[in-house]
Each structure stands twice: as structure tokens, then as C-alpha cells.
Amino acid sequence: MITIAGAGLAGLATGYELLQRGAEVRIFDQGAGPGAASVARFAGGMLAPYCERESAEEEVITLGSRAIDWWTQITTVHRRGTLVVAPRRDRVELTRFARRTRGHQMISQAQVEELEPALSGRFSSGLFFKDEAHLDPRRALADLTAKVQGLGAEIRYNTPAPARVDVDCTGMAAALPQLRPVRGEIAILHCPEVEISRTLRLLHPRIPLYLVPRGDQHFMIGATMVESASTRAPTLRSVNELLSAAFALHPGFGEASVVELGAGLRPAFADNLPRVIEQDGVLHLNGLYRHGFLLAPAMAQRVAERLMPQPALSSTQPPAMECTG
């Protein structure tokens, strides 16, 4: 029996990989039910390795290269690419983003409008990352929970983990050196006036915004990454900036209903890359930060390989990021 502390994204993904190898798995979680205690419920759900390269290491592309196919086995994945745009006065931001990334096509105003008619007349050019995708994080967590339980795992909710487990996936609750909180704030809007079908990124030197469709005219928007350990609700200033950026993307969002505001502390290491760390005989999977849904599959595979090695590995498998503490 392999025991895991935490039934969030990291714990569930690890459980799934172990179950695929024939392990018996028991997961402990202090939340009331699937995803209730997981910071991943505030994630964007963007499977966008090429866009993330703008501010992340090359390993993000390497580790995230198989995420779309992995999640397709679990939940609904929308393979519609990512569209990156910038106001005319901030075209330099688009050029800078293009230089720092790859896997994109520079497109004209007409092509922007063909992809997203709602943006007609608003942006003179854009970058289209056709091989990227997105999912609904909360549905994905629920579907992954069901998949793990269907494969025979026992998940004990409202239950603190025992003092000794095989794998710790408890995020900021883990006692790991150099782990720091990065606060993420999101809003979920209902806006029947706007039809957008793929992830959009609006580049702005002060308030870069991402918008992800959630279906039924619901959209998740996020913009802030704050070095803070505060768990309080989003401030009026940050909410104003978030909603102002959405309005800049499309004025129709001025009529949107605010369904939810949320904030969560995402675990990160100094270089913003995840780790598999062995400490006092326990394997820790942590530091998924803003790339959670993108990097969780590869990192969970690393944990599973440590605990249940297989005789042959594909030569294309990405290198592990591990250390011993």
C-alpha cells in the first residue's frame, strides 16, 4: 500500500500514475470532498507550454509536452490554441513576447477576427499558438478523482494524513526549505454578450491578463502574481485592475456578472520549477506554482518511477527534476 498526503492536483496525479503501475493507493485529505482544499481550483487550466516559455525555463516545454494527451484520457480538453494580443499602443509587448517564445504564428487583424469574431476591429495583429489547449480545472479535478477511485484508490476526506506517508503532496503545508507562496487571484464572470472560444492573453506592461472560456458564457480571468502569504480575499484594487483589463479586452465584459472572486497560495521554489524531493524518507512533489495542470502529469510520473521503477523507459521521456534533502 502506497500512502499519499493530499488529494489535490499533485496527489491525485501521483495516485493515478501509481495505479497505472498496479499499486494499491490510499490518499488522505483534510478537505471535505474532491478539490475542496486544493489551490488548483483557482488555476487557469491552460495547457500552454509555448506561451509559458515567455517567463519560464525550457524545462516547462519539455515537461509539459505530453500534458494535453495525458489529460485527454481524464477529462474534456479543448484543443483550440492560445491567442495572444496587445493594444495598438503596446505592440512592443507583442514583439517582446514573440521573441521569448516559439510555436506561434504571427497573424493579421483579419486572421485574429477569423479566429475570434468578437474581437473584430480591436487588435491589428496577434500571435497564435495553435498546439496549445485548455481545460476546466474544477471539472478536471472531479474527473481525475473519479478516475483514481475507479481504479481502486481509497481517498479519505476530512482526514489528516498519518505522521508517516510515502508521498507528500500538501503544497504550502509541507515543511520544505525554500518553498514560498505566490498568491494568485481570479474572477469568474458570466457574460452572454461575448463569445470567445479559446484562451486569450492580453499583453499589457502593467496588467497582463489571461482569459479562459469555461462554457455557457462563463469565463475565468486572472492577472496577478503576488509574492504574499496572505489568504485574505482579493482587494478592491486588484479586483478593479482585473476587471479593467477584461474591459480592455472587450467592452462587453462591462456588462458581465461577477460569479466568483477567489485567491489561493501557490507553492513555488526559487526558480519557479517543480521538484521531487526526498526528505526523511518521504517523497515530496511540490512547487507546481502556475504550471500545475501542465506539469503535474510529468512530475507524477517521476514519483511513480521512484516508487515503482519499470524496466524500460522511453528515450524521449523528459529528465526529472529531483533533489534529496
Would you mind describing this structure in some detail?
It is a single chain. This protein has 325 residues and is an alpha/beta fold. It has 2 domains: 2-68 and 134-175 and 270-324, 3-Layer(bba) Sandwich (FAD/NAD(P)-binding domain); 82-130 and 180-268, D-Amino Acid Oxidase, Chain A, domain 2 (2-Layer Sandwich), CATH 3.30.9.10. 27% of the residues lie in helices and 26% in strands. It is built from 9 helices and 17 strands. The strands form 3 sheets. The protein has an 8-stranded mixed beta sheet with strand order 5-6-4-11-12-13-10-14. The radius of gyration is 20 Å and the shape is globular. The chain starts with a strand and ends with a strand.
Low-confidence stretches: none
Q: Please give the alpha-carbon distance between the first and last residues.
A: 24 Å
What is the annotated CATH architecture of the largest domain? Answer: 3-Layer(bba) Sandwich
Following the backbone from N to C, one meets helices and strands in this order, namely: EHEEHHHEHEHEEHEEEEEEHEEEHE
What is the makeup of the main sheet?
8 strands, mixed
Assigned CATH class of the largest domain: Alpha Beta
Give me the secondary-structure category.
alpha/beta
Radius of gyration: 20 Å
List the total number of helices. 9
Q: What's the total count of β strands?
A: 17
Oligomer: single chain
CATH topology of the largest domain: FAD/NAD(P)-binding domain
DSSP strand content = 25-35%
In CATH, what is the homologous superfamily of the largest domain? FAD/NAD(P)-binding domain
Average pLDDT confidence is 90
